[in-house]
């Protein structure tokens, strides 16, 4: 499954176009390698996403074409969520 589609289906990022932009800006890695939006993800992959003030590390647990809102978090395991201390709003 494409990275941008997985991020949208799992509801980590709400829109696929936003997921594509973030990946194409170099803010996502899959298994330690910088990923584009078209990068294929598989079960067991470690995905790191850098947002403005936080870095999210997840492990892909399941791949589905569609999912319900309440089941979206079952597609991945949250490994870590780190916040930058010097980030100001």
TrEMBL record:
Record-level Gene Ontology MF annotations: ribosomal large subunit binding; rRNA binding; tRNA binding
Xref: SUPFAM superfamilies: Alpha-L RNA-binding motif (SSF55174)
Any one biological process term the GO annotation gives: rescue of stalled ribosome
Pfam family, one: S4
Keyword field: Protein biosynthesis, RNA-binding, rRNA-binding, Stress response, tRNA-binding
HAMAP family in alphabetical order: RqcP
Function noted in UniProt: Key component of the ribosome quality control system (RQC), a ribosome-associated complex that mediates the extraction of incompletely synthesized nascent chains from stalled ribosomes and their subsequent degradation. RqcH recruits Ala-charged tRNA, and with RqcP directs the elongation of stalled nascent chains on 50S ribosomal subunits, leading to non-templated C-terminal alanine extensions (Ala tail). The Ala tail promotes nascent chain degradation. RqcP is associated with the translocation-like movement of the peptidyl-tRNA from the A-site into the P-site.
Protein name: RQC P-site tRNA stabilizing factor
């Amino acid at each position: 499954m494409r990275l941008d589609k997985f991020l949208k289906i799992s509801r980590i990022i709400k829109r696929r176009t936003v997921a594509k932009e973030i990946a194409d800006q170099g803010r996502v890695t899959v298994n330690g390698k910088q990923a584009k939006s078209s990068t294929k993800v598989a079960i067991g992959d470690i995905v790191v996403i850098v947002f403005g003030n936080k870095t999210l590390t997840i492990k892909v647990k399941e791949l589905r074409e569609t999912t319900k809102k309440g089941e979206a978090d079952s597609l991945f395991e949250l490994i870590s969520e780190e916040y930058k201390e010097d980030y100001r709003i």
